[in-house]
Write the structure tokens for this entry.
Amino acid sequence: MTDTLSLPPRATPEAASFRDAMACVASAVHVVTTLGPAGRAGLTATAVASVSDNPPTVLVCIARPSRTLAVIEASGLFCINTLPGDALDLAEIFASRRGIEGEARFATRPWTTLATGAPVLSDAVAAFDCRLTAVQDVATHRILIGEVVGLGGAAAALGSSLIYRQRSFQAV
């Protein structure tokens, strides 16, 4: 008798089919920001999740070639800003869809800071100010785990939130 279960080989889904299936999943839209020696940096992200509430911990997945990723890893800090429903322009700017780069990305809305000094969107639905605690490479991305050291956001005045579904930004 053997302890090993033998399973038939399975075909891995094609990348395009996987992307099509993931496009059906609605995801909250966030701008992940950081502060480094060259100034503020940020990107749009949907791969964000809570990890634990004791201590408060979150994760974000970022493509390895990202310039913002390099700044986060060097500085050890980041803030996850959950976008309100009217922030489609901001999501596109930080997703590099408007041709706006660097510090100019921060000129379209008001920003503040919390404990780490990373930029916090003043009208974010929620903002999770984090210190980087762990990094894990998986496939083409890097998973960043951060301990939440500050909270912000306008959740009390909650209106709509921005989601990404069917390859477009939508307010819900």
User: Anything to note?
Assistant: The two ends are 55 Å apart (CA to CA). DSSP finds three helices and twelve strands in the chain.
